[in-house]
Write a structure and sequence with these properties.
The complex is a heterotrimer of chains A (about 325), B (about 375) and C (about 280).
Chain A lengths: L9 H6 L6 H28 L2 E3 L5 E3 L3 H8 L1 H36 L7 H9 L6 H11 L6 H8 L16 H13 L1 H13 L2 H9 L4 H28 L4 H7 L12 H10 E2 L2 E2 L2 H27 L8
Antiparallel strand pairs in A: 1-2, 3-4
Chain B lengths: L3 E10 L2 E11 L4 E5 L6 H9 L6 E6 L2 E2 L10 E4 L11 H11 L4 H14 L15 H14 L4 E5 L7 H18 L2 E6 L2 H7 L2 E6 L2 E6 L1 H6 L4 H6 L6 E11 L2 E6 L2 E6 L10 E6 L12 E12 L3 E8 L4 E7 L9 E6 L5 E3 L17
Parallel strand pairs in B: 3-8, 3-9, 6-7, 7-8
Antiparallel strand pairs in B: 1-2, 1-4, 4-5, 9-10, 11-12, 11-14, 12-13, 14-19, 15-16, 15-18, 16-17
Helix pairs in contact in B: 2-3, 2-4, 3-4
Chain C lengths: L6 H27 L4 H6 L13 H9 L2 H32 L5 H13 L6 H10 L6 H26 L2 H9 L4 H12 L1 H17 L2 H6 L8 H11 L4 H31 L5
Helix pairs in contact in C: 1-13, 3-13, 4-7, 4-10, 4-12, 5-7, 7-10, 10-13, 12-13
The chains are: A mainly alpha (about 325), B alpha+beta (about 375), C mainly alpha (about 280).
Chain lengths: ~325, ~375, ~280
C-alpha cells in the first residue's frame, strides 16, 4: 500500500476512495484483530467442529452432517434437544407476551403528558435489569422458598394462600416460574425502548388526531401503535436473541441439569451439558459445537426473518 | 360558517399567567391574524380556541354557542399545525380522510371530499404518496387539505409558513389568501411575522405578554398604533423613536421639543404637563423628502444599505438618537458623511411616558 | 393553574407505584434481612432490623469463608480494562469507518454488525480450546479479550453515529492547520465523544460485570473468579446458611445499586437517546 503524507490532506481524503491510506489501517487493525480472533474465528471454528467427531484417542476427523443427524434423530440426544427447544420457545413466548406487554403498558403510562415523578418510576423500575441474572435467581429462590415462607404469607395476606406451591420445584410450574422471574428482571428494557419511541412522537401529531376527532383509544390504535411498530420489532428480535442464548438464570437456580426432570432445560443449558458433560456422561466438544451451531442457525433464522420479513415493512418514520 | 368570540379569557400555568383578560370577536368570514413576539401567548390562544388547552377562566363561543366544554372535534374547527403534523405512516389520501372516519362520514362522501380538496390544492397526483415523499410545500398543502375536507366553520392556522423557505412562503401566503376568498370561511391565523399579518389579515390582533395590545385593520394599526409596542412591532424597518419633552400645553394643542427641533401637534387632551417626557415615533419613509413645513434634522451617517428601489440611511442625530431614513434608491450619501433628514409633523406619533399614544384613542375592546 | 387532579391520574400513579413495589420489593427484602439474626429472618421477614435483631454475622462468615474482596477486585479489573479497551479501540474503528471513504468500508461495517446479532457465547467451544492453547485459562486476560471482542461491534455502531454528528468543519479546520490524522483523533475526536462513552458503558459494562458464562468456562478457579461466579459458587456451598447467603447477595447487589442510583441519569438518557436504532 503506497501512501504519502499528502494523503492526509482534506482533498485527498475526500477523493481517495480507491486507495487505502495507512492511518485507516492503523485505526482499524486493533478492532478487527481482536474481533476476528476472539469472536468471528471461534464462531466459524465452532461450525467447522460441528462437522467433526473425536474417536477414543482424541483425534478428530471429518464426519459431515452426522452429528446433526445424531442430534435430531438419535433418541439419546434428540429427546433432550427437542425438549430444550420446546422449553426455549415457551420461555420466549412468555417473554414476548408478558415482558413486552407489561413493558408496553408501563411505557404508555410513563409517556402520559406532564406525569409527575415519571423519571423516578423509570429509574426504579429499570433497576433490576442492572443486577446479575445469577443474583436475581438466588433472590427469587429465597423468596419462593417454602421454608422462608415469604411468598405464601404474602399470598395469604391477599387471600390467595391456597394458590401457593413449590413453584420452582414442580415439573409443571418450574419453567413458567423461571420465565416470570426473567420477565420481572428485564421488563425495564422494553419499557425504556418503547418509552423512548413514544416520546419521540411529536405532540402536534397527537393534537392533530384529537382535532380530527380520535379518542384516546383511536389515537393509540391508529397513530401511536403504528408509529412504534419498528421499535416493537427491535424489542422482539432483542428478546428472541437474548432468550435463545439464555443460560445464567437457569444454571443459577436449577443447575446444569435444569430440573426437575429437565423441565427447565433450554438450549443454553443443554449446550453447556453437552460441552462439559454431567454426572456419568462425558463432555464432547464436537457435539457441543453441533448444539452451538444449531443454536446459531435458530438465531440466524430469527434475525433473517426480522431483517427481511419484518424490518422492511416497518419503515422507521421520520418526523 | 360561524363567528368566534372570546370573553374575559385567561390562562395560567401554575403561577405564570400566559393570557390575561382576552376579549375578542371574530366575525363570520373574517381573516384574523394573531401576531406578536414569541412567548406572547398567541399559539396558546389558538390552541384554546381549538380545544387543545383548557382555559382557566372565561368563555369561548363559536357560532354563538358556548364551546368551553366541547372536545376539539365537536367545535367545527380544523387546524393546520406549524409542523404540519401529517401522520407519517399514512398516505396523503388517508391523512386527509382520517378525521372523516371519526365523523362517521360514508365512504363515497369521504372520497368525494378528499378528491375535491386535492383538486383545489393540486394534490390529485400525490394521493398515494407518503408524507416523507413530498416536498415541504406539498406537505403544507396536504395539511391544509386535511383541514378543508372536514368542512369546518373556522380554520385555525398555527404559524403554517414558518417551515418553508422564503420564496415558497410568499407563494403559499398568496395561496392561503386565495383559499380564504374561495371558501369564505372564518380563519384565525397565528404568526410572528408582521409581513404575513399585514398581507393576509382583514383584522390583526397584536399580542404581547399575554395581553391584547391592539386590534384593527392592518393599515389602521400601521397608521394609528395605540402604543409603543404596536408602533415598534408593525412596520419594517422599525419605527424610529426619539426622546422628547413637553414644552407647552394649551387645551388640545401641545408643543414638543425633540432632537433640537420644536413642533406643535394636536392631541387627545389627556393629562400632560410641561416638562413631561414623551417618545416621538417616525417611520423611516416619512423622513426623507423635504416638503412643506418639514423639519430638518442633521446627523452623521453610520451606514447605508442600498436595496435598489430604496436606500436605508442609518444615522446618528446631533442629540445622539439613532434613526433610519428610507431615502430614494439613488440618494447620494456615503458612510461618515453628513445627512439631513426631513420630517413632516403630520406624520409623527407621540407616546407618553407609559408608552400610550396621546393621539389614538384606545377603544374599549369589542364585546364589552 | 387550578387544574383539578383527575381521578384517572390517581389510577395511573397507583399502577406505577404498584409495579415499582413489585420491581424493588424482592431486592429490598434481601438487603433488609441480611442484617438480621436467623431467628428474625424467619420470624419477621418484612421487619426492619432493630437493636435486638441486628447482626452482621452473615457478612463475617462471607469474609471468613471466601475471598469476596478479591472477587470484587477481579470483576472491577475485568470490567474497567475491558471498557477502556472497547472505548479506545472502538472509537478508533468507528472514526476510521465514518470519516474515511475507502474500498471495503461498507463490508467491514457489515462484518462488525454480525457481532451485534450473533452471541459470541456460541463460539465457546473454540474459545476455550484457544485459551487452553494460549495458556490463558484461569486468567483475567482471557475474560478481557473475550469481552472486548463481544463489546466492540455495538460500541463501534454507537460511537460511529456519535462521531458523525461532530461538525465536519472541526476536522477540516484542523487539517487545514496541518494536524496529522492521529492528532485529530487524539486531541479532537476522543475528547468530544465523552458523552457517548456513557451510552457505550451502559451497553458493555453491565453485561460484563454480570456475566456468569465466560467466568464459568474460562476462569472458574485459582482465585480468578469474578464476583458473579464467586457468589454463585459460595451460595452453592453454603446454601443452608441463610445469614451468609443473604449477606453475599447483599455484597453483590450493593455496589451496583449505589453506582446505578448515582449514574442513572446518564444511563437512562443514554438508553432513551435512541442509541438502539
Amino acid at each position: 500500500m503506497t501512501t504519502s503524507l499528502e494523503s492526509t490532506f482534506p482533498l485527498e481524503v475526500a477523493t481517495a476512495r480507491s486507495r487505502f491510506p495507512i492511518h485507516v489501517a492503523v485505526f482499524l487493525t486493533p478492532a478487527l484483530l481482536i474481533y476476528s480472533v476472539f469472536s468471528i474465528y471461534p464462531l466459524v471454528d465452532t461450525i467447522r467442529l460441528s462437522l467433526y467427531a473425536s474417536d477414543q484417542t482424541g483425534a478428530q476427523h471429518f464426519v459431515g452432517l452426522v452429528n446433526f443427524q445424531t442430534l435430531l434423530t438419535d433418541p439419546a440426544w434428540s429427546v433432550h434437544f427437542w425438549n430444550a427447544l420446546r422449553n426455549n420457545l415457551i420461555f420466549f413466548a412468555i417473554h414476548m407476551v408478558v415482558q413486552n406487554g407489561i413493558g408496553l403498558g408501563l411505557a404508555m403510562l410513563l409517556s402520559l403528558p406532564r406525569l409527575t415523578g415519571g423519571n423516578i418510576y423509570r429509574t426504579l423500575i429499570f433497576l433490576p435489569t442492572m443486577l446479575s441474572v445469577v443474583i436475581i435467581g438466588f433472590v427469587w429462590q429465597l423468596i419462593l422458598n417454602p421454608l422462608w415462607g415469604i411468598a405464601p404469607n404474602l399470598l395469604k395476606a391477599v387471600g390467595l394462600g391456597s394458590l401457593f406451591g413449590p413453584w420452582l420445584g414442580q415439573e409443571s410450574t418450574a419453567l413458567i416460574t423461571i420465565s416470570l422471574i426473567s420477565v420481572w428482571q428485564f421488563v425495564g428494557i422494553p419499557m425504556m425502548l418503547i418509552y423512548a419511541a413514544l416520546i419521540n412522537i411529536p405532540d402536534d401529531l397527537l393534537d392533530a388526531a384529537t382535532v380530527d376527532g380520535a379518542g384516546p383509544f383511536s389515537i393509540f390504535w391508529f397513530v401511536r401503535l403504528p408509529l412504534i411498530l419498528p421499535t416493537l420489532g427491535v424489542v422482539s428480535i432483542l428478546t428472541f436473541v437474548a432468550n435463545f442464548n439464555a443460560f445464567d438464570l437457569i444454571y443459577a437456580v436449577k443447575g446444569a441439569l435444569a430440573g426437575p426432570n429437565f423441565s427447565t432445560d433450554i438450549l443454553g443449558t443443554f449446550f453447556y451439558r453437552t460441552f462439559f458433560g454431567y454426572q456419568l456422561q462425558v463432555g464432547s466438544p464436537t457435539m457441543g459445537a453441533t448444539v452451538a451451531t444449531a443454536m446459531l442457525i435458530i438465531i440466524l433464522m430469527g434475525v433473517l426473518i426480522y431483517l427481511f420479513g419484518v424490518q422492511r415493512r416497518l419503515q422507521r418514520q421520520m418526523f | 360558517m360561524a363567528d368566534v368570540s372570546l370573553h374575559g379569557l385567561a390562562k395560567s400555568f401554575g403561577p405564570v399567567d400566559i393570557l390575561r383578560d382576552i376579549n375578542l370577536t371574530v366575525d363570520d368570514g373574517e381573516f384574523v391574524v394573531f401576531v406578536g413576539p414569541s412567548g406572547c401567548g398567541k399559539s396558546t390562544l389558538l390552541r384554546i380556541i381549538a380545544g387543545l388547552e383548557p382555559v382557566s377562566t372565561g368563555e369561548i363561543r363559536i357560532g354563538g354557542r358556548r364551546v368551553n366544554e366541547l372536545p376539539p372535534a365537536d367545535r367545527k374547527i380544523a387546524m393546520v399545525f406549524q409542523s404540519y403534523a401529517l401522520y407519517p405512516h399514512m398516505s396523503v389520501y388517508k391523512n386527509m380522510a382520517f378525521g372523516l372516519k371519526f365523523a362517521k362520514t360514508d365512504k363515497a362522501e369521504v372520497d368525494r371530499r378528499v378528491r375535491q380538496a386535492a383538486e383545489i390544492l393540486k394534490l390529485s397526483a400525490l394521493l398515494d404518496r407518503k408524507p416523507r415523499e413530498l416536498s415541504g410545500g406539498q406537505r403544507q398543502r396536504v395539511a391544509i387539505g386535511r383541514a378543508i375536507v372536514r368542512n369546518p366553520s373556522v380554520f385555525l392556522f398555527d404559524e403554517p409558513l414558518s417551515n418553508l423557505d422564503a420564496a415558497l412562503r410568499v407563494n403559499t401566503r398568496i395561496e392561503i389568501a386565495k383559499l380564504h376568498q374561495e371558501l369564505g370561511a372564518t380563519m384565525i391565523y397565528v404568526t410572528h411575522d408582521q409581513v404575513e399579518a399585514m398581507t393576509l389579515a382583514s383584522k390583526i390582533v397584536v399580542l404581547n405578554h399575554g395581553r391584547i395590545e391592539q386590534i384593527g385593520a392592518p393599515l389602521d394599526l400601521y397608521r394609528r398604533p395605540c402604543n409603543l409596542f404596536v408602533a415598534g412591532f408593525i412596520g419594517s424597518p422599525r419605527m424610529n423613536f426619539i426622546k422628547g419633552e413637553v414644552q407647552a400645553v394649551s387645551g388640545r394643542r401641545l408643543s414638543l421639543r425633540f432632537a433640537g427641533a420644536e413642533i406643535d401637534i394636536e392631541y387627545l387632551g389627556t393629562a400632560l404637563k410641561v416638562g413631561d417626557s414623551v417618545t416621538i415615533g417616525v417611520r423611516p419613509e416619512h423622513m426623507a423628502e423635504p416638503g412643506n413645513g418639514t423639519i430638518a434634522l442633521d446627523g452623521q451617517v453610520d451606514a447605508v444599505e442600498r436595496l435598489g428601489e430604496a436606500s436605508y440611511v442609518y444615522m446618528k442625530l446631533e442629540t445622539g438618537d439613532d434613526v433610519i431614513v428610507r431615502a430614494s434608491g439613488d440618494v447620494e450619501v456615503a458612510t461618515g458623511s453628513r445627512y439631513t433628514a426631513h420630517l413632516a409633523p403630520k406624520t409623527i406619533h407621540v407616546f407618553d411616558a407609559s408608552g400610550c399614544s396621546i393621539q389614538v384613542e384606545v377603544r374599549p375592546v369589542e364585546g364589552f | 393553574m387550578n387544574r383539578p387532579i383527575r381521578p384517572s391520574r390517581i389510577l395511573v400513579h397507583l399502577a406505577l407505584i404498584l409495579y415499582t413495589v413489585i420491581a424493588l420489593g424482592p431486592i429490598l427484602l434481601i438487603l433488609l434481612n441480611a442484617f438480621k439474626t436467623r431467628r428474625a429472618i424467619f420470624a419477621d421477614p418484612l421487619g426492619f432490623p432493630d437493636a435486638r435483631t441486628f447482626t452482621t454475622i452473615g457478612f463475617d462468615q462471607v469474609f471468613a469463608k471466601s475471598d469476596f474482596g478479591l472477587y470484587f477486585l477481579n470483576s472491577l479489573t475485568v470490567t474497567v480494562v475491558s471498557l477502556g479497551l472497547i472505548v479506545l479501540i472502538g472509537a478508533m474503528a468507528a472514526w476510521a469507518l465514518t470519516e474515511y471513504r475507502f474500498r471495503g468500508n461498507t463490508i467491514i461495517g457489515l462484518y462488525l454488525a454480525i457481532g451485534i446479532m450473533v452471541p459470541i457465547r456460541l463460539g465457546s467451544v473454540s474459545i476455550l480450546r484457544m485459551m487452553v492453547e494460549l495458556n490463558l485459562v484461569n486468567t483475567l486476560t482471557a475474560l478481557i479479550l473475550v469481552y472486548v471482542a463481544q463489546g466492540l461491534p455495538l460500541a463501534v455502531l454507537i460511537l460511529g453515529e456519535f462521531i458523525q454528528q461532530i461538525p465536519r468543519e472541526l476536522r477540516d479546520a484542523a487539517r487545514c492547520d496541518g494536524v496529522s490524522e492521529y492528532r485529530i483523533f487524539g486531541s479532537i475526536i476522543l475528547p468530544l465523544i465523552q458523552p457517548a462513552i456513557a451510552t457505550v458503558a451502559v451497553f458493555t459494562m453491565v453485561p460484563i460485570w454480570n456475566d456468569l458464562w465466560f467466568p464459568l468456562i474460562l476462569s472458574p478457579g485459582d482465585g480468578k473468579q469474578t464476583i458473579t461466579l464467586g457468589v454463585q459458587q459460595f451460595i452453592g456451598q453454603y446454601v443452608t446458611d441463610w445469614n451468609a447467603v443473604l449477606a453475599s447477595l447483599t455484597l453483590a447487589i450493593a455496589p451496583i445499586l449505589v453506582l446505578y442510583l448515582l449514574f442513572s441519569r446518564y444511563l437512562v438518557r443514554g438508553l432513551t437517546a435512541g442509541a438502539v436504532k
